[in-house]
Amino acid sequence: MPEALPEVPAAEVPDEAWLLDVREDDEWSAGHAPKARHIPLGQLGSRAAEVPQDAEIYVICRSGHRSARATEALNGAGWHAVNVAGGMQDWAASGRPMVTDSGAEPFVA
What we know:
By secondary structure, this protein is of the alpha/beta class. Helix content is 27%, strand content 18%. It has a 5-stranded parallel sheet with strand order 1-5-4-2-3. The mean pLDDT is 96.
């Protein structure tokens, strides 16, 4: 039986967490967590070297589905990754901070 995917609700992601946002560019532009790093899921394989292997990685997307796939892949390749259940939808709903690079009002696209 496969091991359960490690995950936490958005409200429980530590403020100092290494947060990896795997959403697409337009979703990221609409609003993201202030300290998140952005690598779209489709680029994760070629950009994995940008993700530290000596830190716990919290992976987030819009709803938690793409980030679950990324978490599974990272853990399978030797990282210690945790899926953020409910994604940016739950992040916003729980009142966690969001920003945009443009300065516009952030929202979850």
